[in-house]
Amino acid sequence: MTTAPQNPITRAIWDGTLPIKFSLDATEAAALGAKTIIEPYFAEAPRCSYFPLLTSQIRKYFVDMALNFIGDDAEIWYDVDGTPLKWHYPIGLLFDLHTGYRPDSNSPPPLPWPVTVHFKNFPADKLIRAQEIDATQDFFMSMIKEADFLRNGSTKKVMNLSKNDQTQLWDGLWSSILYYDFSHFIYVSDSIRCSVYKF
């Protein structure tokens, strides 16, 4: 199969990051045992990644700050201005949707992006509960199948991926949190996109 030439736009999208300010919900802080104001957690998150991939480090930060939380990561959720964030959307897409930011506008984007972290009162009527990283991976692969169907009229390319290729596609995304491993992701991504490119 012929793969596409390396596209600098694809690489720029992959390398895109967002500075995010994660603040604990003020009403939950006292209920979770916080004796003082807990400082926000700041992170530079890849735009192509997902919140569940950051949740364990966010949880660790707030628990290390003397937060009395004994639940699991599935109980943690995020909002912006009172609107729950859908964890199964990429972080960059959520930023664009919730800030209304357009690159061609004259106003700068709201950075760091203020996101509220919740450890209680999961809005099950508004969000799908993210169980584990494996569930996030399954959801991601389902979205890849949907995209393949929209692009090619079938899911054949994705369904023909070996388990190793599926793992490599996910590992490229997962490792982007730590290493920005574009090569892991693009190798498999190129194999499921159309092999004929029109410019």
Automatic annotation (TrEMBL):
Q: Which organism is it from?
A: Ambispora leptoticha
Q: Where is the Autophagy protein ATG5 UblA domain?
A: 13-119
Q: Which GO terms describe its cellular component?
A: Atg12-Atg5-Atg16 complex; autophagosome; mitochondria-associated endoplasmic reticulum membrane contact site; phagophore; phagophore assembly site membrane
Record Pfam families: ATG5_HBR (PF20637), ATG5_UblA (PF20638)
Q: Which UniProt keywords apply?
A: Autophagy, Isopeptide bond, Ubl conjugation
Q: What is this protein called?
A: 3773_t:CDS:1
Q: Where would I find the Autophagy protein ATG5 alpha-helical bundle region domain in this sequence? A: 134-192
GO terms under biological process: autophagy of mitochondrion; cellular response to nitrogen starvation; piecemeal microautophagy of the nucleus
Q: Which GO terms describe its molecular function?
A: Atg8-family ligase activity
Its family?
Answer: Belongs to the ATG5 family.
Q: Which Gene3D superfamilies match?
A: 3.10.20.620, Autophagy protein Apg5, helix rich domain
